[in-house]
Amino acid sequence: MIVRIMGEGQVDIAEGDIDVLNALDSELEAAIETGDEGQFRVKLHALLDKVRQVGKPLPDDALEPSELILPPADASIDEVRGMLGDSGLIPG
Predict the structure, then answer these.
(1) Digit-coded pLDDT (tens) for 20-68
(2) Which Pfam families is this protein grouped with (predicted)?
(3) CB atoms < 10 A from the CB of 82, how many?
(4) Are 69 and 80 in contact (CB under 8 A)?
(5) Cβ of 48: how many Cβ atoms within 10 Å?
C-alpha cells in the first residue's frame, strides 16, 4: 500500500503491517471522539512514527498514486476529524 504523509513524501507499507496501523488508527479515532487534545497528539504521532518505521520510502521523483493520505504531525484535531472516513484514516 502506497501511503503519503502530507509534507513528507510517500512510503510503501507491507500488507502485514496494516493491522498494527489499524489498531493505532482506532486509538487516534477514540481520542478525536473524546476531544482530548493531549491524547490526540500522542496517538497521531504514534501512528505517523509507526508508518515511518515500517514503510519503505519511495524516491522523491516517484509518481505512484497514493492509496492513503495521512495528515502531517502538526495537524489539528479538527483537520484530522475532517479527513476521517467511515473506517478511520486507514481502511481495514
Answers:
(1) 999 999 999 999 999 999 999 999 999 999 999 999 999 988 888 989 8
(2) PspAA
(3) 10
(4) no
(5) 19
Alpha-carbon distance of 54 to 71, in angstroms, equals: 17
Rounded CA-CA distance 12/35 in Å is 31
Q: Using an 8 Å Cβ cutoff, are 88 and 29 in contact?
A: yes
pTM of the predicted protein model: 0.90
Q: Which residues contact 4 (CB under 8 A, 6 or more apart)?
A: 10, 66, 68, 69, 70
SS3 68: strand
**49: which 3 cell numbers?**
512514527
